[in-house]
Write a structure and sequence with these properties.
Layout (H helix, E strand, L loop, with lengths): L6 E2 L4 E3 L4 H10 L2 H5 L4 E5 L2 H12 L4 H15 L9 E8 L4 E7 L23 H4 L9 H12 L4 H14 L1 E2 L2 H9 L1 H4 L3 H7 L10 E2 L2 H13 L1 H5 L2 H12 L6 H5 L4 E3 L2 E5 L2 E5 L6 H12 L4 H4 L4 H21 L10 H4 L2 H12 L17 E7 L5 E7 L57 E5 L2 E6 L7 H13 L5 H6 L3 E2 L6 E4 L4 H7 L4 E4 L6 E6 L2 E6 L7 E6 L1
Parallel strand pairs: 16-17
Antiparallel strand pairs: 1-20, 2-19, 3-11, 3-20, 4-5, 4-12, 5-8, 6-7, 9-10, 10-13, 11-12, 13-14, 14-18, 15-16, 18-19
Helix pairs in contact: 3-4, 4-6, 4-7, 7-11, 15-17, 15-19, 15-20
Amino acid sequence: MVKGIQKISQVSNIYLKKYPLIAFSLILLFSYSSFLKAESYAVASRHYLATDIGMKILEEGGNAIDAAIAVAFALAVVNPSAGNIGGGGFMLIHSAEKNETLSIDYRERAPKKSFEKMFQDNSGKVIKGLSLNSTLASGVPGTVSGMFYASEKFGKMDIKSLMKPSINLARDGFVLSDFQAKNLNKHKEKFLKNEEAKKIFTRPQGFSKGDILIQKNLAKTLTRISQYGKEEFYSGETAKKISSFFQENGGFLSLDDLNHYRVRILKPVCGNYRNYRVCSMAPPSSGGIALIQILNILENIDLSELGHNSEKYVKILISAMDYAYKDRAKYLGDPDFYKVPQDLLTSKKYAEKIYQLIQRNKLPSKVDVSITESQETTHFSILDKWGNVVSNTYTLNTAYGSGIVPSGTGILMNNEMDDFSSKPGYPNTYGLIGSEANKIEPKKTPLSSMSPVIVFQENKPYLITGSPGGSTIITSVLQEILNVLDFEMSLEESSTKGRIHFQHLPDILFYEQLDNSLIKLLKKDKKLIKRKLGEIHSILLKKDGIEVFSDKRRPDGKASSIYK
């Protein structure tokens, strides 16, 4: 009965409503788990070519982890501003068979020669740009290790076949969209500082829509990795090319750093919100703790009665964000180096105390800092026909990372060292303040805002979501969750609604769209800046169908699904 129903999406939003003639039978005969066994699968990512590759893997019998690996390597080619093998991130996996959820931390690590004051001058002043645009800016990349670990432990298909599409795209090239061409031209000055980046990512006349971007050295690197495994990246020819470049150009990243890189398997941070269970990343990501803390605060009030983006709604969101980001700055860091009070920060009692303070209009004190924001992280969400899901967020940090491509590799390197506290109390490029908890130390992982999320209903995956956007990731994902769970919006409506962002410091409310009367009111005690916030890539699993959506804040994204 269900098998005869098929819907293939070629557009950004798919929503399957109940089929009237069989709805009653479906309700009677099929449980939620049997719905997931109905060979339904979906991919939502930042680039249509990567989504198509992921869908093909799923069609060929690969599971969600296989598709995730193929999508991740594809994005390294077709989304060079953020998709990467020179960076790192977090993968959240739910196994349907075992009914368990785990996460892989393949975030970058500080090189062993790193030290607390490496970005300060002799007087203790932070040297502007050193943590972003120099050979000192790169942490040890984790993406290749993360993908191979996921493949070995959870995949079904040979990783060579999963990497083949990305190799072909790098070798033969792909067509640039108008957005991509303009984005490459926008960052031309960054590429001109590095000889190989200049050759790949610049043109004398600039790029135009329809141009073909070919990355031959990246194709060679990916080919070697597919043939010789992760060891090629961490100890083989590729590792030697990377380390030699950094050692010859004043960087700290060494062959020994690459040799000793290992992923970490972490227990996700989970919390109950109304009738749902929300799971995200544990430290060294701040996403899970901050998200659960905010949801715990908001659970004390019926948001739907306030009205979406009403005055009371926006004010309670601002206040909850304020406290969560204050605690982020004070308490969060790499748990291998600093004892994070996770149980306290995610407890209902702690949230209740904060809510009472908010009710009495008592908010944390502030000082002002500057901020520059990047949208250049990337997220993808995947569901396979067995009900396994992957929520993955990874990044180079800012757009195109450091802009550095080690000679002969084609690999854009990250500038994740900026995510450490260059100096306690000094803001990073996202305006986020750090403390001793996030100071620079050898082999330490910098604090992150990346927040891949799986929301469960009745112990089954319900919403798979995540977002790029630096410090705005947490609040973008938060509002996606609230829109779907509290306001019962479709994914398209939820993902396209105007969002707000407030992160304690700087004392600025960022917004996309609010009523003029509310803007006028908020301006009485806050500085407001209108800007685009991070895009969402989500899958919603409903008993009567699947919704998938890739946020059009960035035009190249695509979400596809098959429902049988």
